Automatic annotation (TrEMBL):
<protein>
    <submittedName>
        <fullName>Amino acid/amide ABC transporter ATP-binding protein 1, HAAT family</fullName>
    </submittedName>
</protein>
<dbReference type="GO" id="GO:1903805">
    <property type="term" value="P:L-valine import across plasma membrane"/>
</dbReference>
<dbReference type="InterPro" id="IPR003439">
    <property type="entry name" value="ABC_transporter-like_ATP-bd"/>
</dbReference>
<dbReference type="InterPro" id="IPR032823">
    <property type="entry name" value="BCA_ABC_TP_C"/>
</dbReference>
<dbReference type="Pfam" id="PF12399">
    <property type="entry name" value="BCA_ABC_TP_C"/>
</dbReference>
<keyword id="KW-0067">ATP-binding</keyword>
<dbReference type="GO" id="GO:0005304">
    <property type="term" value="F:L-valine transmembrane transporter activity"/>
</dbReference>
<dbReference type="InterPro" id="IPR051120">
    <property type="entry name" value="ABC_AA/LPS_Transport"/>
</dbReference>
<dbReference type="GO" id="GO:0015808">
    <property type="term" value="P:L-alanine transport"/>
</dbReference>
<dbReference type="GO" id="GO:0005524">
    <property type="term" value="F:ATP binding"/>
</dbReference>
<dbReference type="InterPro" id="IPR003593">
    <property type="entry name" value="AAA+_ATPase"/>
</dbReference>
<keyword id="KW-0547">Nucleotide-binding</keyword>
<feature type="domain" description="ABC transporter">
    <location>
        <begin position="4"/>
        <end position="236"/>
    </location>
</feature>
<dbReference type="GO" id="GO:0005886">
    <property type="term" value="C:plasma membrane"/>
</dbReference>
<keyword id="KW-0813">Transport</keyword>
<dbReference type="GO" id="GO:1903806">
    <property type="term" value="P:L-isoleucine import across plasma membrane"/>
</dbReference>
<dbReference type="GO" id="GO:0015188">
    <property type="term" value="F:L-isoleucine transmembrane transporter activity"/>
</dbReference>
C-alpha cells in the first residue's frame, strides 16, 4: 500500500526550478533511494515533504490525506521524520536528552519518553555514549544520534539526507546495517545519497533526479544501466 505520494511537485527559487513536476511514491515498508548530482533538487524535495518549504503547486498525499498545506510541526506527529544533511544535534544535551526530544512527542510522561529513548539508543548501538553530550560525538555518531532522534518520533516514514556522507568505510558499513535494521522493523525510508554505491544495494527502488526532474526510476539494477543516468553522473 502507498504511504506517501508526491504528485506534480513544483518548487521555484527565483529563476531556478528546483523541483519541476516531480512525481514519486513510496509504499509501506519500502526503502526508496533518491539520487542525482549536486543541485538536482533532492534536498528541496525533502524540504517540501517535511514542510520546511511550501510547494508552489502539486499535492503531497500521506496515508490518504493531502498534507501540503500543513506546517512542519503538524507533519511530524502524523509520522514523517527526517534528518538534515548538516548535522545539528543539541550540542549541550546528552545523547539520552537529544533522543528524548523526539520521544516526548508521542509519550504520555517523561518517564515513558525516557524508556523509549533508551530502547532506541540500544537498538542503534549507542548505549555506551548515552551520557555523552552531542558536542563530544564523532561525525558518524552525531549522524546516528540524529537518526535516533528522528526515529524516536515513531515515524511511518523516515527521510535520511546524506546519512552516510563523510563517513569512512567502516562507519558506512555500520550505517548501512542499522538503516537496514530500521527498515526491517517496518519503517519506510527515503534515502538521499550522493554516493550510488551506498544507495543501490540498500534500495528496493530508486528515483534519479536531474535539474529538478525525475529522469529515471525503477529497480536499482535497471536504473544503474539507464544511459540517461550514466550521462547525468558522468556527462556533467
Ligand atoms: P540537491 O539536494 O540535489 O543537491 P537542492 O535541492 O539543494 O539539490 O538544490 C536544487 C536547486 O535549488 C539548486 O540550484 C539550488 O541552488 C537551489 N536551491 C535550493 N534551496 C534554495 C534556497 N533556499 N534558495 C535558493 N535556491 C535554492
Amino acid at each position: 500500500m502507498t504511504i506517501l505520494e508526491c504528485k506534480h511537485i513544483y518548487k521555484k527559487f527565483g529563476g531556478i526550478t528546483a523541483n519541476n513536476d516531480v512525481n514519486i511514491s513510496i509504499d509501506e515498508g519500502e526503502m526508496v533511494g533518491l539520487i542525482g548530482p549536486n543541485g538536482s533538487g533532492k534536498t528541496t524535495l525533502f524540504n517540501c515533504i517535511s514542510g520546511v518549504y511550501k510547494i508552489d503547486s502539486g499535492e503531497i498525499i500521506f496515508r490518504g490525506n493531502a498534507i501540503q498545506k500543513l506546517p512542519p510541526h503538524r507533519r511530524t506527529p502524523l509520522g514523517i521524520a527526517r534528518t538534515f544533511q548538516i548535522v545539528r544535534p543539541f550540542k549541550a544535551l546528552t545523547v539520552l536528552e537529544n533522543v528524548m526530544i523526539g520521544s516526548l512527542l508521542k509519550s504520555k510522561s517523561p518517564l515513558e519518553a525516557e524508556e523509549k529513548a533508551r530502547e532506541i539508543i540500544e537498538f542503534l548501538g549507542m548505549t555506551k555514549y548515552i551520557d555523552y553530550t552531542g558536542a563530544h560525538l564523532t561525525l558518524a555518531y552525531k549522524k546516528r544520534l540524529e537518526i535516533a532522534r528522528a526515529l524516536a518520533t515513531e515515524p511511518y516514514i523516515l527521510m535520511l539526507d546524506e546519512a552516510m556522507a563523510g563517513l569512512n568505510a567502516a562507519e558506512t558499513k555500520e550505517a548501512v546495517e542499522f538503516v537496514r535494521k530500521i527498515n526491517d522493523r517496518g519503517t519506510s525510508i527515503i534515502l538521499v545519497e550522493h554516493v550510488m554505491e551506498v544507495v543501490m544495494p540498500l534500495s528496493d527502488r530508486v528515483y534519479v533526479l536531474e535539474n529538478g526532474k525525475v529522469i529515471s526510476q525503477g529497480l536499482p539494477s535497471e536504473v544503474s544501466k539507464d544511459p540517461l543516468v550514466i550521462e547525468a553522473y558522468l556527462g556533467g
